[in-house]
Amino acid sequence: MSAAEAASRRSRLRLVVVQALVFSLFATLFVRLYYLQVVSGEQYTAQAANQSVRDIVVQPQRGLIVDDMGRPLVTNRTAWVVSIDRSMLEKMTEPQQDKLVERVAQVTGVRAAMIRKRLVTCGEEGSVVGACWNGSPYQPVPVATDVDQSVALRVLEQPEDFPAVLAEQQTVRNYPRPYGVNLAHVLGYLSPITEDELDAAEEDEDDSVNGASSVGRAGVEKQYDAWLRGMPGYRSVAVDSMGRVLGDDGEVEATPGATLVTSIDARVQGLVEKELAGAIAQARTETDTVTGRKYEADSGAVVVMEAGTGRVVAMASQPTYDPGVWVGGITKKQLARLYSEAAGTPLLGRATQGQFAPGSTWKPFMTAGAMTNGYGPDTRLACSSGFQVGNRVFKNYESGAYGHIGFDKALEVSCNTFFYRIGYDYWQRFGSDVDDVDAKDPLVEEAKVFGFGDETGIDLPGEASGRIADRSWKRAYYDSMKDYYCGIADKPQDAKTSDFVYRFAREFCIEGFAYRAGDAVNFAIGQGDTIVTPLQLARAYGALANGGTLWEPRIGKAIVDPNGRTIKEIKPKKAGTVGLPKSVLSYVDNALKGVAANDQGTMNWKLLGFPLDQVQIRAKTGSAEVYGKQSTSWVASYTDDYVVVMMVSQGGTGSGRNGDSIRRIYEALYGVEGSTVDPRKAFIPGSKPPAELPTFTADGSILPPGRRDAGDSDATAGQKEGDR
Fold first, then answer.
1. Phi-psi label, residue 50: left if phi above 0, alpha if psi -120 to 50, beta otherwise
2. Could you write out the three-class secondary structure of 420-473?
3. Which pTM does this prediction carry?
4. CA 443 to centroid of chain Cα atoms
5. How far apart are CA 596 and CA 635, in angstroms?
6. Can you say how many angstroms the Cα of residue 598 is from the centroid of all Cα atoms in its chain?
7. Which secondary structure element, helix H or strand E, spans residue 618, and what is its range?
């Protein structure tokens, strides 16, 4: 074969190979196309369809919060919300986006910088905690809540000026304020869920929250959040390639949250808040005779509790704030004020979080401790004008003296020197060795038995524990602070350090750990470093009233589902007993009756003419001295049914500041007018948690079917009474 023929043959062979390769490629392509279009056609068609359907979360209506008679304390209302659809926004050019954001900022009043922060998904680069968006990337992002209707209508009527901007109605919290109640520290508030909380919910497979949820942050809104929040729904919408909604593709309805029925009585709460505010305002017009200054009366609290169950009927704190300030998002300026010391730290609820020296309201518990540790009803000690410990004389109030008296008279006239002697006696017998941290102290032990130094267990978050300033506490405090004070003492005194501070620092550095006789006598009358919350004191007095049971205070009373069925009854819970003999409890009880009824009783002058034979009030007053401040005024009291504790920080004497208010509260609770008792006029006629969801009445209250406020003659009578 010639060379030419061989070359021609190789060319034909290559052509055949190329043709076979091309044919095989076409065959493979054809088979693949057949598989995609015929075999798997339905599957891919469905997937393509799904890509044009988006799920939008439908937030549920949060459950109501009502008082024990069904009056609304927290409800919901509709509000206009302006949102931006980021999927549509991203299809615009950057200049167009900037113009749109500026336009939205102008009409809503929200700063453009804040809108931009809200449009960033949490966790992405540039996201700002507290401002970023936690929800679905397909969910329109709310940038302005509770805007005027005129703003919403402008957005809706001018879509060409506001592309990608939506305006729709959503529910937000509302505060009807029956009888003018504030109740901010009990109710609490909501704020958007955080990224960490959302991650935790996803780990727990909790479907009740999502990135757009708001959750309880304080008060019963937080404590009962799981019941109140409800279950979100989902709405599927069909969209085109530009992200514009074409129509609904299906919906799973949201489930509203349950209603929380509380033990709070709005009528009593309204009166209590008014009395507390009035006492503080009056104090600020009067002069402290010791300092010559007007009373600062910087804070205060009142607790009204059922003695036999621990249920809280009313609880007020000052300073307070408008709970509605959180609706729609709180500003930095508003938040700063809530934490501001200059404004009195309004966010701090004094009833459960405020901690104050109890003063003479402490003495009934010291009496119980002494009468079960060597002393008795026949004990007689000198109530002298002063009692010397070392080189210091501890005095009675206004240096009063009553001779040799028993515990009953000592409580009645609030004799300090009587209790100084008891505290000093125990210190001498058991604790004169200042290095013995574990020395026996019957008074300290009794205070712990009554629950002081520990949280009460109330169903509110953030409760303070108070403090029993015993030997262990003093040693621990010394260990934590000795470097600081020794640092002051080791240097020459400068112009910024007062003589007192410099002298105190030197003494503390050397022996700040020592529990001396002065500490013991101060403890016996509720002075020194021991502090309690008003709620702790109310619970302890409740134990005196009910025969020795310590209850965990309760705000919640029942949970009612959206269909009106009671799905959970929140029952009172016993925390323990004080274990005192009935004879001791009876003795203390009779002594405290004398404080209210006998001529020399420190509360008697405020109860003249009150029908004490029908409504037996037991009381103890107190004026706790605080270094560098004016006295903290206290009245702790109880009847067979209720405990009422009231205090005003830097307010003066106990009964002088609080006595009139305490009287008016009992008059309202029992229907007292002058010297007569009319149960029909009592603010609380007695009720149980409603078995069905309450309904609105003409005056805006929610009452159980067939129930009306006692004494109301028409639909608005109750409100007028509460505003009086």
1. alpha
2. HHHHHHHHHHHCCCCCCCCCCCHHHHHHHHCCCCCCCCCCCCCCCCCECCCHHH
3. 0.84
4. 32
5. 11
6. 39
7. strand 618-624
